[in-house]
Specification:
Layout: H1 12-25, H2 30-33, H3 39-51, H4 65-72, E1 86-91, H5 98-105, E2 110-116, H6 119-132, E3 142-147, E4 162-168, H7 170-175, H8 181-194, E5 195-205, H9 209-219, E6 228-238, E7 241-250
Parallel strand pairs: 1-2, 1-4, 2-3, 4-5
Antiparallel strand pairs: 5-7, 6-7
Helix pairs in contact: 3-6
Length: 254
């Protein structure tokens, strides 16, 4: 991959793009955009976006499932474990269709858990799925929506119990908040704790590899406790932005 020379911080173009996306659905101010690590921010966002229309509409941060299905679905080709379904977590799901699309398209049986810190987002998704009666590709698959603080994944999952974690913009929101970096670090460590040794964390982001790879490689290593391999692929360009898929895979501690 060619070297990158862009700023390691959120550029003015990215700030403008983020604000435009939020204004489409909400009257949230720039001050609140800086507090995307707060539950109250997202509760207000989903309350306002749902009250502005009588028709449910998915809010997709960055892009939808079709843009990244080729990164996700190949990781769900191995047979489920003897103890049941492949465990998939859509972390910080909001009202995205990503999790339900994995449920719909996976030929192997999966349990897709769509988790968000906002109970309002969770309720909206539960109501939508009940109305639409989404059918899975594999009749043994399961889909659930849970209210969950992703810095506390261990409260919902046991160690080494998850096969795939998908993070589409959640870590970006934390890292770009005034007080969110510590939470982003905790989320990464929690992901590595609950992933199986054969599992992966996929982070979809518009942050340049020269910044994100350094952060991942630093925070995913803790001598004697955890280690991980980190890679990156380019997803493509949308509305003048280049997006990336960062794959983090746990590595055995020697």
């Amino acid at each position: 991959m060619s070297p990158f020379t862009k700023s390691l911080t959120l550029s003015g173009v990215r700030i403008a793009a983020a604000r435009a996306a939020w204004r489409q659905y909400s009257s949230l101010t720039a001050e609140l955009i800086e507090n995307m690590d707060k539950k109250a921010t997202w509760d207000r966002f989903y309350t306002e976006s749902s009250s502005s229309t009588n028709t449910f509409k998915h809010f997709e941060w960055f892009f939808g499932f079709d843009a990244v299905r080729d990164f996700i679905m190949p990781l769900l080709q191995t047979k489920p474990h003897p103890d049941g379904l492949l465990q998939v977590l859509d972390m910080g799901c909001g009202t995205s269709a990503l999790g339900p699309c994995i449920y719909r398209h996976s030929p192997l049986p999966v349990r897709v858990t769509c988790a968000d810190i906002s109970p309002i987002a969770v309720r909206l998704m539960q109501e939508h799925v009940q109305t639409k009666a989404i059918q899975p590709h594999n009749l043994s698959s399961r889909l659930e929506f849970v209210e969950l603080d992703c810095t506390q994944l261990h409260e919902h999952y046991g160690c080494s119990s998850v096969d795939l974690i998908v993070d589409k913009g959640t870590t970006d929101a934390l890292l770009r908040s005034k007080e969110g970096k510590w939470k982003a670090n905790q989320v990464l460590k929690q992901c590595l704790k609950v992933l199986r040794s054969s599992g992966s964390l996929l982070q979809f982001s518009d942050e340049d590899p020269d910044a994100r790879l350094l952060w991942l490689e630093t925070e995913a290593q803790e001598p004697g406790v955890m280690a991980a391999d980190v890679g990156v692929q380019e997803v493509g360009e949308l509305r003048g932005m280049t997006y990336y898929c960062y794959q983090v895979t746990p590595r055995s501690i020697v």
